[in-house]
């Protein structure tokens, strides 16, 4: 598995799209720090970009790599190598290269700006951690979609639809539910709906750690009461890990049963 991981990782690192991804975040970091003298304000702006862009790029990269390396994968399947090792190696290679581009692209400008001397170092670290989790989650979801759909067009369609649902439609349905059932106590429902969407969960974690939950009104107070505690942080991290591990398990399970 490690040889396949290494090959996939270096294959993507040499790709011009990885450089574009890295340079985009590098330039974004320098521009935001130039426009904002406050690191915390730059982190808030970055959050809005990362929460939407990272899942989209991870989904597209994941599904493109799977389909483009299909012939190479079939060649590996003819060798005495575990199927799980092949797909896990490819997945970790893709997710690892994307995560590295994200961390270095954002980390370099903030470190040069004096991040280690700032009080916002924990907030920035949390931003990178949630960005890394979103990369891992949506890359493996893209691999699952591609593995279940031989047709490239259908695979791309389902992948984009998944991102659209998680990033936009889910929030719309959530808000409609809150408005329709506003006469009922919805504290538990709000927490549950947030936890079961990794994008919303990541956004809420960052907002609360930046101590601007007042912008969320009553819902923010409910979230702060739960997510602001050590128990809430533990549950949040656990759910992000769960969102990562469950699709990985399905990827391994389906790859063992699928007839190639």
List the topology elements.
Layout: H1 2-13, H2 16-35, H3 39-68, H4 70-77, H5 83-113, H6 121-148, H7 152-180, H8 187-195, H9 198-209, H10 217-227, H11 230-257
Organism: Maribacter ulvicola
Transmembrane segments: 20-36, 42-67, 88-112, 124-147, 159-181, 233-253
Protein name: Cu-processing system permease protein
Outline of this structure?
This protein is mostly helical and 260 residues long.
Mean pLDDT: 83
Structural classification: mainly alpha
Shape: globular
- Poorly predicted runs are none
Into which percentage range does the β-strand content fall? under 5%
Rg of Cα set: 19 Å
Domain count, please report it.
Answer: 1
> Main beta sheet, described?
none
**Fraction of residues in H or I helices:** over 70%
Number of helical runs? 11
CA-CA gap between termini: 19 Å
Oligomer: single chain
Q: Can you describe what's shown?
A:
84% of the residues lie in helices and 0% in strands. It is mainly α. It has one domain. Helix 1 (2-13) crosses helix 5, helix 3 packs antiparallel against helix 9 (198-209) and helix 6 (121-148) crosses helix 7 (152-180). The longest helix is centred in the middle third of the chain and has 31 residues, at 83-113. The protein is globular, with a radius of gyration of 19 Å. The two termini are 19 Å apart. The model has no long low-confidence stretch (mean pLDDT 83).
